[in-house]
Amino acid sequence: MITIGTGIVMFFFGFFIAAALGANREDHYESIEPERDALMRVLNRKETRLVVATLSAIDNELRRCYWNKNQMDLPSPFSNTGNSYSCDAFAVRAYDWAGDNGRNFVYRNGRLVAEWYKHLGRGDYVEVAYDWTLGELADMLEDCIEVIRRDFGE
Questions:
Q1: In this predicted model, what pLDDT tens digit does every residue of 125-142 receive, in sequence order?
Q2: Residue 133 burial (CB count, 10 A)
Q3: Which H or E element spans position 3?
Q4: Burial letters for 93-109: b for 16+ Cβ neighbours within 10 Å, e otherwise?
C-alpha cells in the first residue's frame, strides 16, 4: 500500500528528475488515442503537479534506458523537441509548433491524458477517465517503467 509519505517522496522525486529522451515511433500513437466522447475529469492544480512529477519519472526512465542501449541521448518528447515515443502502455509527443498540440501524453486508451505548452511542467492540463487514487498513479508509473524496460531489453 502507498502511504502519504511515499506519495510525497514520489512527488518531490519527480520534480528533481531531469527531462530528456525520445524516439520517433508513431506506430502506436494512433492506436491509443483516447475516446474523446468519454466523460473526462480535469484535474486540479495539486493533482496535476503530482501527475507532472510522475511523467517526469517516466521521462527519466525512458532517457536512462535509451542511453544504456545506445550510449547517446535523444531529445525528449516531453520537451520542445518535435520528437515522439510510443509503446504498448503510452504515447508521448513533444509540443508541435505546427499547431496540433492536443494530447501530448496518452496512457492506456485515454485513462489519463496530459497536455502542455512547449515542455512538461509549463501550462499543464490533465484529464482522467475517472477519479484516480495515489495507488493507481503509482501503478501507472510502474506499468510505464516496466514496458519501457521491456522495449529496451532490460
A1: 898 887 888 999 999 999
A2: 10
A3: none
A4: bbbeeeeeeebbbbbee
